[in-house]
Design brief:
heterodimer; A: about 375 residues; mainly alpha; ABC transporter involved in vitamin B12 uptake, BtuC; 16 helices; about 70% helix; B: alpha/beta; Rossmann fold; six-stranded mixed β-sheet; 11 helices; 10 strands; about 25% strand; binds adenosine-5'-triphosphate; binds magnesium ion
Chain lengths: ~375, ~260
């Protein structure tokens, strides 16, 4: 059967120095925890309430854009139903913190301070959001094995709409502590507010949590891209037939891309659901939101993690600056999309990261070796 | 004695077109065999059948005694059969190095989670993959191009990169589909040496599709000739060259007139 490749023996002789492990593995992870602390205790308090709110929105959009990029950019499949996964995550997390909160404390208010009991429940809720969205990602990923291009786009669009319509059909939220205590979990699952939205969720979303998830998402995506598993994603986008011929199990990898992407969208949904000033309702998480995320990925670069981060920032901040012309937002998105498709279909940065592009190359040379 | 690659009675039809009929082949371990025939004879289709792109309507294919029929292309690649494409199919937007490293995915044992966590094991695996890829680029004379984007390579280099990428699978059998197409005479001479070198160095068995008869006759010990999807001759270069049916297939004239 298959020949012994000798890669393993080679690897045994190439065990990394402790310093390399520290630099490549440990330090980025430490940074992923320090950056959110800086946002939470440093930047947030000094910039004030409104800019902090914008920083929350930016973070959530970064998670969305970078995760959609795993499918649309890395793997070259065109999904336009990302808000559907976000909704699945948001409602899952809402169920945990709202009814979970009632079961534990008799109300749905935030409990405990920074990293207190309430925030731990929020962490559990966000992980549950990731898992349930991932399960839906698996279901939507399966047809992607047979469908390509426009057809796949339609399936994902349809998925987003189905989720939206299903949520509209749900019934009123239970608000009475004794009633909630007496109701079984399966029947609570349906009490998420219908078209009016799932209101009354505790506001756990803070700069710490948002930027923690941003750091983790960016870390996962960028490490994936520079690893053998990420290159398998990229090979599918480049040439599926050649990828198969080179031993890449393209069907498995495509589903994996969908699952990972959906999981992070679920996280973004949980962050969105528990943010002050947002309402978790089916209208907010419809096609328009999916479209917004697609714009970020197309703008930033199909495959560029840093490009998507930058585009998410721009697409979040610009409408804030141009509030007076907000009604033209969709027109602007559509125009941007059309122009990009004609002029630069690979996105501003294409596959490259920002530091791999000329004016920045010199700046980053020492780190990017 | 059975060969490393054994093909018996393989046929496929596209609609009404019988593209390949009752194809047979026995590739000796370490052998270098040619597959020739006029345009449209079905040569590339044979490669697609061997590598699982198409599933044959009938027939058997086995590699090292293991049946390949019904396996997916990536499974066949992992089982030890690597190929190049007649119409170059590189991962065009990726670097030369990444093109090669992708093929090592099949031989990687680290999990996605380990890659994302950058465990020492995953770091070592990546170093091993890169080292292996750089060695292959060295053999193929592409080492100084490692960081270039594949689509920017000259044509001849793209063809050699395809060979390097196939070698990164650590195959037992290498299928080359017109590797010399579009190359100039010097490049062809270099390619001839290269095919011999890699066969020795990586202990490969090679099946070569090529239109350049000089190259085929010089390189191959055994040649199979296809015409209209059927094997019309099979044997040493000399016997095939003198075979009237082969001459007829290539010249389109009845053999009697040619020999006359
Ligand atoms: N997927 C397909 N569907 C329909 N017909 C096909 C398909 N693939 C190949 N054919 C037909 O099968 C025949 C053999 O094609 P093939 O590409 O194998 O020839 P070839 O010997 O490689 O020719 P060349 O020397 O020009 O590369 C041709 O008539 C071709 O049109
Ligand atoms: Mg051909």
């Amino acid at each position: 059967m298959a020949r012994e490749s000798g890669l393993k023996a080679r690897a045994a002789a190439l065990a990394p120095e402790p310093m390399t492990v520290l630099k490549q593995s440990v330090l980025p992870l430490v940074a992923a925890f320090v950056i959110p602390l800086i946002f939470h205790f440093g930047i947030g308090p000094s910039v004030g309430a409104y800019p902090s709110k914008v920083l929350l929105d930016i973070g959530i959009n970064v998670v969305l854009a970078v995760s959609l990029n795993l499918v649309n950019g890395f793997t070259g499949q065109f999904s336009i139903g990302h808000a559907g996964f976000m909704a699945v995550g948001g409602y899952t997390a809402g169920l945990v913190t709202y009814y979970g909160g009632y079961r534990i404390w008799g109300d749905s208010l935030p409990h405990g301070g920074f990293l207190g009991a309430g925030e731990m429940l929020f962490l559990v809720a966000t992980i549950a959001a990731a898992l349930s969205a991932a399960a839906f990602g698996y279901l939507v990923g399966l047809p992607s094995l047979r469908l390509r291009g426009d057809y796949l786009a339609l399936v994902t669009l349809g998925f987003g709409e189905i989720v939206r319509v299903m949520i509209q059909q749900t019934s009123d939220i239970a608000t009475d502590a004794t009633e909630i205590a007496a109701t079984s979990w399966p029947s609570l699952l349906w009490k998420v507010g219908g078209a009016l939205g799932f209101t009354g969720l505790p506001f756990y979303t803070s700069l710490f949590w948002v930027w923690l998830w941003v750091s983790l998402t960016v870390l996962v995506a960028s490490r994936l891209k520079t690893s053998t598993h990420g290159r398998a994603f990229l090979s599918i986008r480049e040439d599926e037939i050649a990828a198969e011929a080179m031993g890449i199990p393209t069907t498995t990898i495509k589903v994996r891309a969908f699952v990972m992407s959906a999981a992070f969208a679920g996280v973004a949904g949980s962050l969105f659901a528990h943010e002050v000033g947002t309402t978790l309702n089916p209208g907010e998480l419809g096609f328009q939101k999916s479209f917004e995320v697609v714009i970020m990925v197309v703008l930033g670069g199909m495959g560029s993690v840093s490009g998507c981060v930058l585009a998410a920032i721009v697409v979040t901040v610009l409408p804030e600056l141009l509030r007076s012309v907000d009604e033209y937002r969709m027109v602007a998105y559509a125009l941007t999309l059309i122009l990009m498709m004609i002029l630069r279909p690979q996105g501003l940065f294409g596959l490259r990261e920002i530091w791999e592009i000329w004016p920045f190359k010199a700046l980053f040379r020492s780190e990017a070796k | 004695m059975t060969g490393i690659l054994e093909v018996q009675g393989v046929s496929i039809a596209f609609g009404g077109l019988k593209a390949v009929q009752d194809f047979r082949l026995s590739l000796r371990e370490g052998g270098l065999q040619g597959l020739i025939g006029p345009n449209g004879a079905g040569k590339t289709t044979v490669f697609n059948l061997l590598t699982g792109v198409y599933r044959p309507d009938s027939g058997t294919v086995s590699l090292g005694g293991h049946n390949l029929i019904g396996l997916k292309p990536h499974q066949i690649a992992r089982a030890g059969m690597a190929r190049t494409f007649q119409n170059i199919r590189l991962f065009a937007d990726l670097t030369v190095l990444d093109n090669i490293r992708i093929a090592s995915h099949a031989r990687t044992w680290t999990s996605t989670l380990a890659s994302v966590l950058r465990t020492p094991g995953a770091i070592a695996a990546e170093s091993a993959i890169t080292e292996h890829a750089m060695e292959l680029l060295d053999v193929l004379g592409l080492a100084d191009r490692a960081q270039e984007t594949a689509r920017n390579l000259p044509y001849g280099d793209q063809r050699r990169l395809e060979i390097a990428r196939a070698l990164a699978l650590d195959p037992e059998v290498l299928l080359l589909d017109e590797p010399a197409a579009g190359m100039n005479p010097q490049e062809k001479i270099a390619l001839r040496g290269l095919i011999r070198t890699v066969r020795e160095r990586f202990s490969l068995s090679v099946l070569l599709i090529e239109h350049d008869m000089g190259l085929v006759m010089d390189l191959c010990e055994q040649i199979t000739v296809l015409d209209h999807g059927t094997v019309i001759a099979d044997g040493s270069p000399e016997s095939v060259q003198g075979n009237p049916r082969v001459i007829e297939a290539y010249l389109g004239a009845p053999s009697a007139e040619v020999s006359a």
